[in-house]
Amino acid sequence: MKANDRVFVVDLSERAFLAEITEVLEDQVVLRFLSWQESETELPIRIAIASGLPKGDKLDFIVQKGTELGAVAFYPFKAERSVTKWEPKKTAKKIERLERIAKEAAEQSHRTHIPKIEFASDLGKLLTLMEAFDYVVCAYEESSRAGEKNVLATVFEEIPHGASLLVIFGPEGGLSETEVEQFGKKDVHFAGLGPRILRTETAPLYLLAAASYHFELADSFFNE
Amino acid sequence: MKANDRVFVVDLSERAFLAEITEVLEDQVVLRFLSWQESETELPIRIAIASGLPKGDKLDFIVQKGTELGAVAFYPFKAERSVTKWEPKKTAKKIERLERIAKEAAEQSHRTHIPKIEFASDLGKLLTLMEAFDYVVCAYEESSRAGEKNVLATVFEEIPHGASLLVIFGPEGGLSETEVEQFGKKDVHFAGLGPRILRTETAPLYLLAAASYHFELADSFFNE
Fold first, then answer.
1. Contact of B16 with B37, CB cutoff 8 Å
2. What ipTM does the predicted assembly reach?
3. N or C: which end of chain A has fewer CB within 10 A?
4. Which residues of B141-153 are buried (b: 16+ CB within 10 A; e: fewer)?
5. Residues in chain B where the model's pLDDT stays below 70
6. Is residue A148 predicted with pLDDT exceeding 70?
7. Which pLDDT tens digit goes with each residue over A76-100?
8. Domains along chain A?
9. How far apart are CA B133 and CA B73, in angstroms?
10. How distant is the Cα of B212 from the closest Cα of chain A, in angstroms?
11. Is A1 helix (H, G, I), strand (E, B) or coil?
């Protein structure tokens, strides 16, 4: 970039503004403030995605597309049926990689918030992370199979703007009975995501798009 | 597969049933009918996706994930700002490849309908294809930028079950003025897909997930 180019800047308090480069020096760039960016690019509710460790590079995909679609955090967790393992020695590197993907996707989407990544190495850690959220939904294939189709819209209808929601997704093999039982002991809503079977990396994108549609596009229908 | 394995069969009229393999012969497999599959896995409205030819393997991605999310057809079209070109000689091969991807994704999702693929080699062909649809929506970035946020939900609210909807998406560089002008002459609804900038391959997935949420999960809220 060079003088006269325009840049989109996000400050530490997550306020965004437009600026123009006036000078590029050896170790600094001088900007001229143009205008505050008033358009709100963050979802009205804060949604975090907990994904049972999937195979291959699916987590990269979930973090990239999930960031584009507005997630505020990603918690990969070691699910009972996860085939992929994260060796403790390599965890820091893997997290760094996902952080980089989230940062780039946030910039490309002009988000003001860069999603946080945190690894839950066992079910206990995930249960502890859950405590921080106002609402928890578990996307449950068995619910979809059983034709469940009201929970998600009912929960969305109940969540006030500004509240936080954690959504849990199983790995390819689904969640185990133990996991479902443990979530059931907490105040977790088990929700189906429609009648088609979604892959483990597609389900979080469905959830985030549905939330955007509910809170950002169809809001007036729900609040009538 | 072998005797006693169970298979999911879809007949030519798109009715699905469960069967058991009783015998595997040299050139045929004998099945025993078990039960009709009553769960409906097709979206209540028929959605086709028209994508301005995107770069790289993004079309593979759109077809795979779009099939999982319920699209009934894909129309790649040569948009004015498409960087990728499809040489006439190679078009048939490219279509075959996408048909294979759609078929595999439909099987994996237990869909009863395999999406159709058709290439629109110029704007005129796309305009002709449009005629066959009850509704046409154009996902328009400028609408999103301008804060438009009611069109999609209003159109969804209006579309009756069983109707067909074509949704048009631009390539990476967006739709050209000419294209937008031509669509504007037809009865096309220009809709924003929320405040975050979505990549060209993410926007169709957003649209399909929003439609599933509207018609399959939150239906009772809209019909109150």
1. yes
2. 0.89
3. C
4. bebbeeebbebbb
5. 38-39, 223-224
6. yes
7. 999 999 999 999 999 999 999 999 9
8. 6-36 (no CATH), 46-222 (3.40.1280.10)
9. 12
10. 7
11. coil
R_g of chain B, CA atoms, integer Å: 19
B39 vs A153: CB contact, 8 Å cut-off? no
Measured between beta carbons, the chain A residues lying within 8 angstroms of B196 are: 41, 68-70, 109-111, 212
Sign, CA dihedral A152-A59-B145-A159, equals positive
What CA–CA distance (Å, rounded) separates B91 from B117? 11
| pLDDT tens per residue across span B173-198 | 999 999 999 999 999 999 999 999 89
Which residues from B are below 8 Å from A205, CB to CB? 65, 202, 205-206, 209
Structure tokens at A60: 């990269």
Which residues in chain A have their CB less than 8 angstroms from residue B193's CB? 212, 217
Segment A16-28 shows an average pLDDT of 91
Residue of B nearest to A212 (CA): B194
Under DSSP, is residue B125 helix (H, G, I), strand (E, B) or coil?
helix
